[in-house]
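Protein modeling request. Please complete all fields; requests missing the sequence field cannot be processed.
Requester role: graduate student
Desired output: 3D structure, token encoding
Chains: 1
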Amino acid sequence: MKKPRSDPGQPDLRARRKGESRKVELARQLRGQTTMPLAWIAERLSMGTRGHLAWLLPRHSERRRLPPRI
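Delivered output (70 residues):
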């Protein structure tokens, strides 16, 4: 069975850091708009374990709410 080719316009998520803000935001959107479990999202986005993703989500949202540093 052939492995599907990735779209050349899409960056490879495996090459990006597990906690990269764009990946966390994408995970948040997936979690809010689908019924997919955290384990599935973490695996598909190459974010490590379900527990790591669960740890990242609230911390990422806290950073978005903080005022900018002076």
